[in-house]
Specification:
mainly alpha; two-stranded parallel sheet; two-stranded parallel ribbon
Length: 209
């Protein structure tokens, strides 16, 4: 099993504004108990040696995890590092421009299957050769939402990749019951594609399947 989307659980690597936003999305705007929620988030983001992440990978037989560094600078007012860099952020329209300019580069937008299922599926069907999408933040889905995502996976079975987004969205840092629910709804072949083979193709090419 491959997890295409994890983050370092270290508050030093994450914008304070983002941490405050995570806390703000929780109980009483993150102010319950005099800021206890934000303190709990920061405490959760203290896995500096990745022991909790490694424990999670062992529990779920995850053999590879792709560590992503989140860059929220422009959204927090820091502006682009170069004035010539584009500022287009429309999704999924802006992604198609990138794909037109770089047709041989495999691309996997994070959260696509969860945040814009319909638009992402349309993109995947139009670009079967080099476009993928992960299911990170699936922990937020209702049972019906998860069912819709799994139905979407069937429309592009070779292009959807598992991602947990650990440690975000689930303060346990563990996909847990939702992951087991996905497994129960998928055939062995569908599980192989979603949880490993599609990621291997994305990362290493078709010969790696």
């Amino acid at each position: 099993m491959i997890d295409i989307h994890v983050h370092p659980a270290d508050a030093r690597c994450i914008s304070p504004g983002f941490i405050a936003g995570v806390a703000g999305s929780m109980f009483d705007g993150g102010q319950s108990g005099g800021g206890n929620v934000e303190r709990a988030v920061r405490l959760h983001l203290s896995d500096r040696n990745a022991r909790r992440l490694l424990s999670q990978t062992d529990t779920h037989a995850i053999v590879e995890s792709i560590l992503l560094i989140a860059d929220f600078g422009p959204a927090l007012g820091e502006g682009a590092s170069l004035p010539t860099l584009g500022r287009e952020q429309r999704y999924p329209q802006s992604l198609e421009e990138v794909m037109r300019r770089f047709p041989d580069v495999p691309i996997a937008p994070a959260h696509g299957m969860v945040w814009d299922l319909e638009g992402t599926i349309e993109l995947l069907e139009r670009h079967p050769r080099n476009l993928y999408s992960d299911i990170s933040s699936f922990q937020l889905l209702s049972d019906h939402g998860l069912e819709m995502v799994l139905e979407g996976c069937a429309k592009a079975p070779d292009q959807v990749i598992f991602g947990s987004d650990a440690p975000l969205y689930d303060l346990s840092g563990n996909p847990g019951a939702k992951l087991e629910e996905m497994r129960s709804r998928l055939t062995p072949g569908e599980q192989a594609g979603l949880f490993e083979l599609n990621a291997r193709t994305f990362l290493y090419g078709a010969s790696a399947r």
